[in-house]
Amino acid sequence: MEAASSKLSLSLLLIFISAMLQHPRMGATLGINYGRVADNLPPPEKAVPLIKSLGATRVKIYDADPTVLKAFANSNIEIVVGLGNEYLVTMQDPEKALSWVKTNVQCHLPATKISCIAVGNEVLTFNDTSLSAHLLPAMQNLYSALTILHLEKQVTVTTTHSMGILETSYPPSAGKFRQDLVGPITKILDFNTRIDSPFLINAYPFLAYKSDPKQIPLNLVLFKANDDEIIHDPVTNFRYENMLFAQTDAVHSALEKVGCNKLCVQISESGWPSKGDPDEIGASTENAKKYNGNLIKLMKQKTGTPMKPDVNLNIYLFALFNENLKPGPTSERNFGLFKPDGTPAYYFGIGGGSTSNGNSSSSNGGGSSSSGGGGSSGSSPVAGGGSSNGYPYLSVSSDGRSRFVQCKIMQIFWLGVSILSLRLIL
Ligand SMILES: *[C@@H]1O[C@H](CO)[C@@H](O)[C@H](O)[C@H]1NC(C)=O
Ligand SMILES: *[C@@H]1O[C@H](CO)[C@@H](O)[C@H](O)[C@H]1NC(C)=O
Questions:
Q1: How buried is residue 290: exposed, middle or buried, by Cβ count under 10 Å (0-12/13-18/19+)?
Q2: pLDDT tens profile 9-33
Q3: Is 362 near ligand 1, meaning CB less than 6 Å away?
Q4: Residue 299 has pLDDT above 90, yes or no
Q5: In Å, what is the CA distance from 254 to each residue of 117, 136, 182, 418?
Q6: Which among 359, 371, 376 is the best mutation to test ligand 2's pocket, defined by most ligand atoms within 8 Å of the CB?
Q7: 357 lines ligand 2 (CB under 6 A)
Q8: In angstroms, how far is CA 261 from the centroid of its own chain?
């Protein structure tokens, strides 16, 4: 009798130990933008497994559509909701801000993990001063509303900027804000600092390349600069093998010049189109594959930029789907990783999405030209990456990292407890 019960405790313990040791995924996240300017997209419930198949654990949307937010309930995916520029005027009224938060954020918590409200998109570079003037008050009113509802600890408030807010970005140490925007930006930065919310910037090396393909080496924008293409910053002596990091450090420099270099910078959008107009040099499947694939590889290596080597950049890829109703050049409708039917727009050799279907096959997907398994039915269609811990897409934010450390400490603690109890039993 006694032997049986101690055997039982022993096996329970062993199960417990192995469960504790297999807990590799805390803190590591890939983000993806889920835009829906299209009339042919699958319902949001279909987007959730696609996002999981990528291994993404953060999503940014451009509104607070209840069908989307409901679809993400209990998915454990963290969501940034958006408040369109057209709402900024309404949000000048604190009462309306409060009711907006109640009906668009509070009612979905905690099942849907809304972590942030991105107020307006690239507002300052619209050059519409009356719109810009409404940005900060809207952010403040939304934050006050969150505070009234005691949600300010779980949901933060920020806005997204375009690289156009910089007047100078080359070399990175020369980065500074557009002179006419220094005033409004500084006030927003003070707000970010006060509530400890991140500084979000949309950064597209593609746009830089497209505007000047003769001067800018394609390898540099695709993360693979040759020795003679590396950007050398004469002031800092830093070397940049990719333009995204150069752009990010230009932002860091601009922030430093206005005394805000402590803010956490995150890339709220970055991506590459698989198709474009004839004059959109660089837009191609081949380059999109390289850009997104190399970006994810870089995130896996967990290297920060030369100026902030210890800070892992949080990046939200743009975008989940091709969006057929977006205005503008052809590229705008072709940034998606997936076509509307849920098949990959191209294969870019990331994956190992072991979460969605329990398939943790870790075939190495450095390769890129295999046809991508064409899998439907929720299997990982762009899979092929895989990594030793089954979690290939790392973009750990600083708080993510501390959670990761805590998680490791807990593992060691429980291992100790388990060994101790084993000794007591045996
Ligand atoms: C806004 O103004 C800047 C410089 O004053 C200009 O470079 C930019 O193209 C303008 N943006 C728009 C959307 O008009
Ligand atoms: C996992 O993926 C591999 C490679 O795509 C496939 O051969 C295998 O059948 C899959 N296993 C499961 C359980 O889905």
A1: buried
A2: 666 666 655 555 443 333 337 899 9
A3: no
A4: no
A5: 24, 20, 10, 51
A6: 359
A7: yes
A8: 20
Q: Check if the beta carbon of residue 395 is closer than 8 Å to that of residue 386.
A: no
d(CA 269, CA 172): 19
- Mean pLDDT for 86-107 is 98
DSSP 8-state code for residue 247: H
Going by their DSSP bridges, the two strands 199-202 and 156-162 should be labelled as: parallel
Pairing of strands 231-232, 113-121: unpaired
DSSP-derived letter for residue 55 is T
Separation of 271 CA from ligand 2 center, angstroms? 29
Q: Looking at this protein, which amino acid is placed at residue 419? A: I
Q: Are 160 and 121 within 8 A, CB to CB?
A: yes
How confident is the model at residue 352, as a pLDDT?
A: 37
Question: Angle formed by the axes of helices 182-195 and 129-148, to 10°?
Answer: 10
Ligand 1 center from residue 179 Cα (angstroms): 12
Q: Please list the alpha-helical segments (H only) found in 161-242.
A: 182-195, 205-211, 218-221
Q: Is the pLDDT of residue 237 over 50?
A: yes
Asked whether the whole model's pTM tops 0.85, one would answer no
- Under a CB-based contact definition with an 8 Å cutoff, are residues 35 and 323 in contact? yes
Atom of ligand 2 at shortest distance to CA of 357?
14
